[in-house]
């Protein structure tokens, strides 16, 4: 299964980011806590260069706490603050705002000493599609996001949004990279829904997910689908899940498509369990 996706608007968004960075004090980089490495755009470091950054590990409620903590330590060791967030409950959002102000505190004080008029801290939030950026922005704004008015950047695809406190955020569309050099990265993005299911074989994807989860968390699959034991192969496990969930079509045949959708949906919603798919030690040097 070869996954490759780069719509034309992604190129425009990359150019937009570079254009607007001169207006920005700090970048909020939004990642999926289950796959912080795979959900990171590898071009972002080059694009934002030396701008201060805060990493937001979104969907932390779906990830393994111990592994999330190891990612927080990984970023700390690299001089970056990483904050786990749950946009449904709002957990971690206050810390995000406080950290955003802290990392540019010296810059804002220096501007004040120069006699510059006090202004809001300007933030850019970047992240791949479907990582929860809209929900994050609405939570940080305390309402459905809206344009703040007469400022550069208020056009279709980019808008300034007033946040709580003395903060303003420049929203940008999600951005992926031109091609996936590593199909393992592409698979993890597909598992979590960052890539639309319509562009791939859903049944093969579910089999690959079963294979990944079974390596570390076979017990969670057994418990969720009331299996005595998982199958000897991902296909056998899928067939056991299908029978337990009644995914049988006319003639007693298994409905693999329906079964695949159930497994993917229940992983993405956390019903199978809080499962992280990568750790800092997995990063290829």
Automatic annotation (TrEMBL):
Protein name: Ribosome biogenesis GTPase A
Gene3D superfamilies per record: 1.10.1580.10, P-loop containing nucleotide triphosphate hydrolases
A GO CC term attached to the entry: cytoplasm
Principal location: cytoplasm
Residue span, CP-type G domain: 13-178
PROSITE patterns in alphabetical order: G_CP
Key word Nucleotide-binding present: yes
Species per Swiss-Prot/TrEMBL record: Alkaliphilus pronyensis
Cytoplasm is among the record's keywords: yes
GO BP field: translation
InterPro entries: G_CP_dom, GTP-bd, GTP-bd_ortho_bundle_sf, GTP-bd_ribosome_bgen, GTPase_MTG1, P-loop_NTPase
Similarity annotation: Belongs to the TRAFAC class YlqF/YawG GTPase family. MTG1 subfamily.
Localization per record: Cytoplasm
């Amino acid at each position: 299964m070869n996954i490759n996706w780069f719509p034309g608007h992604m190129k425009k968004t990359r150019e937009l980011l570079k254009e607007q960075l001169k207006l920005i004090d700090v970048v909020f980089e939004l990642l999926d806590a289950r796959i912080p490495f795979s959900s990171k755009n590898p071009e972002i470091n080059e694009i934002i260069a030396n701008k201060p950054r805060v990493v937001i590990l979104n969907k932390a409620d779906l990830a393994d706490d111990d592994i999330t903590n190891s990612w927080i330590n990984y970023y700390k060791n690299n001089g970056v603050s990483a904050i786990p967030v749950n946009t449904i409950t709002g957990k971690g959002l206050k810390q995000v705002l406080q950290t955003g102000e802290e990392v540019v505190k010296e810059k804002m004080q220096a501007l004040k000493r120069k006699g510059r008029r006090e202004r809001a801290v300007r933030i850019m939030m970047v992240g791949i599609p479907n990582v929860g950026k809209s929900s994050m922005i609405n939570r940080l704004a305390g309402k459905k996001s809206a344009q703040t008015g007469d400022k550069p950047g208020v056009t279709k695809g980019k808008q300034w949004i007033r946040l709580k406190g003395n903060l303003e955020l420049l929203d940008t569309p999600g951005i992926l990279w031109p091609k996936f050099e590593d199909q393992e990265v592409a698979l993890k993005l597909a598992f979590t829904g960052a890539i639309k299911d319509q562009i791939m074989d859903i049944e093969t994807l579910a089999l690959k997910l079963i294979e990944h989860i079974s390596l570390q968390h076979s017990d969670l699959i057994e418990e969720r689908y009331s299996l005595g034991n998982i199958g000897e192969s991902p296909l056998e496990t899928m067939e056991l899940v299908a029978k337990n969930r009644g995914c049988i079509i006319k003639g007693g045949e298994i409905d693999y498509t329906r079964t695949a959708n159930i497994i993917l949906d229940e992983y993405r919603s956390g019903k199978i369990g809080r499962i992280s798919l990568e750790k800092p030690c997995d990063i290829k040097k």
